[in-house]
Design brief:
alpha/beta; five-stranded parallel beta sheet; 20 helices; 48% helix; globular; CheY-like_superfamily
């Protein structure tokens, strides 16, 4: 039958060993797992051609293993083994994506017959996937993405894997790498693409306003609630909800979000009647949630609930082979928008663009090309039109901000964070907050007003950064 790789999942050693002997006798490579949890670890580590799993196992049953396979390796067929061969069992297994099931006791011939049929289906599926992959490779990217690097090909493949499922996705990556584009690509390639795509920036709203936006509220729930409001969880019903900068959600709101994700029910603020929701959730952050969990700033249970399918976007400096394609794309986009006839980029300018470190990632490159198109005096963009430092390996001109400059307003802070490494963000934020407090004699309300940040959000930053006004005043 060929050198196929099999994963066998069963909590009974006798069954595992028996299946291994049968399958290895047919020339298969066989890996066995004692539980569903260890099977998921194996699925994360390597690819399999077929999975055979028992139905009744402690901790995580065969249906849950099946769902994990459909999320992580959707092209891999799954055969369920059961000692409880009822019609309901078969229907549930097939409904969740199993290609077949087999009841105990069974003969080796019966099992191998089902495996042979499943592998034939897999070969046909892989041929179709390869044709799709070739079509993607013949273009310059995927969906709204531009890039053909191996790093981005991995991202495209994971998007296609998860798009067909409802498994929660956590997209990570530095600012400017395109996390929302991932969420939109998942939605557009999913069966939900005819339903709403709703994006929420969790960093732009105070805690009470964010909860009202997400969960909705009933009339009279709080001062100013003169009308009932439908929450975005319900607005996105049937479609995809994208929670950007999920790391900025307060601990109390995290608890409510976890409950919604577990129960798939949302109760509007001030309401008593839970409302069922049907969404595909995609969350994103440019911060390390594992580190935040260790610091007590993010709930561990929510992290695991969000991190079912991780997608990590590479920074632009790690896929520099895509820079010429991106430059060409942005050049066409902005010359058409501005109405200029720019034929190309001079060699010295192209050399700088290809070697620059791009701390702001693709967004910074896009802004750089737009600025160059606007400023270019002729039909060719030259080095002087770029406003980039040729010696830069991690910084930029920050649009006129000198090195060591501490931002004074929310807009300046956002601009600076776009151009610095993630590990430097917290230091800039602390300097920003401390500077505002010192200039306003440690008055939180005045400091928040000066920076253009809502007072609850400013207080949230103080808490997240571990800054105590009381402690500072007692020094």
């Amino acid at each position: 039958m060929g050198q196929f790789r099999m994963l066998v999942v069963d909590d009974e050693a006798v069954i595992r060993d028996g299946l291994r002997r049968i399958l290895e006798g047919e020339g298969f490579f066989v890996e066995t797992c004692v539980s569903g949890h260890s099977a998921i670890e194996s699925l994360h580590a390597r690819e399999f051609d077929l999975i055979v799993t028992d139905l009744k196992m402690p901790g995580m049953n065969g249906i849950e293993v099946l769902k994990a396979v459909k999320a992580l390796q959707p092209e891999a067929p799954v055969i369920i083994i059961t000692g409880y061969a009822t019609v309901d069992t078969a229907v549930e297994a097939m409904k969740n994506g199993a290609v077949d099931y087999i009841a105990k006791p069974f003969t080796p011939e019966q099992l191998l017959q089902k495996i042979d049929r499943a592998l034939e289906q897999r070969v046909l599926l892989m041929e179709e996937l390869n044709r799709t992959k070739d079509a993607i490779s013949s273009q310059h990217g995927f969906g709204l993405f531009v890039g053909q690097s191996k790093e981005m090909q991995k991202v495209y493949h994971r998007i296609m894997q998860v798009a067909a499922t409802d498994s929660t996705v956590l997209v990570t990556g530095e600012s400017g790498t395109g996390k929302e584009l991932v969420a939109r690509a998942i939605h557009q390639n999913s069966p939900r693409n005819g339903k709403p795509f709703v994006a929420v920036d969790c960093s732009s709203l105070a805690e009470n306003l964010l909860e009202s936006e997400l969960f909705g509220h009933v009339k009279g729930a709080f001062t100013g609630a003169v009308l009932a409001k439908t929450g975005l969880f319900k607005v996105a019903d049937g479609g995809t909800l994208f929670l950007d900068e999920v790391s900025n959600i307060s601990l109390s709101t995290q608890a409510k979000l976890l409950r919604v994700l577990q129960e798939r029910l949302v109760t509007p603020i001030g309401g008593t009647q839970p409302v069922p929701i049907n969404i595909h959730l995609v969350a994103a952050t440019n911060r390390n949630l594992r580190t935040m969990v260790g610091e007590g700033a993010f709930r561990e249970d929510l992290f695991f609930r969000l991190n079912i399918i991780p997608i990590e976007l590479p920074p632009l400096r790690e896929r520099k082979g895509d820079i010429p394609l991106l430059i060409s794309h942005f050049l066409k986009k902005f010359t058409a928008a501005v109405g200029k006839n720019i034929r190309g980029i001079a060699p010295d300018a192209m050399a700088l663009l290809e070697t620059y470190d791009y701390p702001g990632n693709v967004r910074e490159l896009e802004n750089t090309i737009e600025r160059a198109v606007v400023l270019a005096g002729g039909e060719v963009i030259h080095k002087d039109d770029l406003e980039l430092s040729p010696d830069s390996t991690g910084g930029s001109d920050l649009h006129g901000m000198e090195e060591g400059y501490v931002p004074h307003t929310s807009d300046e802070l956002k601009e600076m964070k776009r151009h610095i490494r993630d590990q430097a963000v917290e230091g800039i934020e602390k300097a920003f907050v401390m500077g505002a407090l010192e200039r306003n004699n440690w008055n939180i309300t005045r400091a928040a007003e000066e920076t253009g940040i809502l007072r609850p959000n400013f207080q949230g930053m103080l808490k997240r950064l571990g800054i105590s006004v009381k402690a500072q005043l007692e020094k």
